[in-house]
Amino acid sequence: MMLKLYHGRTSVCSVKARLALAEKGVEWESQLLTLQGDQFDPIYVKLNPGAVVPTLVHDGRSIIESTVIMHYVDDAFPGPSLMPEDAASRAKVHLTTKLMDEYVHNSCTALTFATANRSRFQNMKPGELEADLARSPSRARAEAKRQAAAHGLDAPLMVDALRNHETLLDQIDAAMEEGPYIAGSSYSLADVAAIPYVWRLEKLRLSRMWDKRPGVAAWLDHVRQRPSYTAAVENWVTQADLDRYSSFHPDPWPKASAILYGR
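Below the sequence we write its predicted structure tokens.
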């Protein structure tokens, strides 16, 4: 069997794929992308026309889109199922992944562009940013980059970006009243889908968003104790990555707090 994952170290969608693979105990070959332009290489674009990560290649077949990949991994390989047995809990999984795909993912991209990644855009020479944006197959993603580079957290789209993350945090907090995981008593693809985005909020120094949501902190502590978290998240993050997240200025919390709570 040939199983290769094209992925990025801190890419939230790559984390989703790695978590699913780790939970299933599947061995795979790593092909890291820097995401500094190598995602536009024609050879890679042939595998993934969207020029994004991750891409899973299984016996010559290319599987794209992280939500599809994690379901594929669960379906294709033996090991504990990552989907609950009962229909109601399975519906919770689908609602969680739908929230990620339709709202939270683009919001996460916007927040990251406006904070940790903003200095890279600001340091580009005139014309370089537009050239970079022109390469993106997604016009919406390009516009988010443009606004974030110009205005940071003052960009108009940041209001919805923060509120969409609050919706996710509210759902996790409420779910903890019924079980230790998002879809109930067992770890599932709902947790796989949500972990990278809460992890990213924490790295962007926005963890105070769950100060009044104790269920989120309890859930995060719980999922971090699983071996898959170490294998899929911690083992791939470098000190340079941590430094990039910890050193950007200004501190995003005062602005985020003002947007969310008017203070």
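The mean pLDDT is 94.
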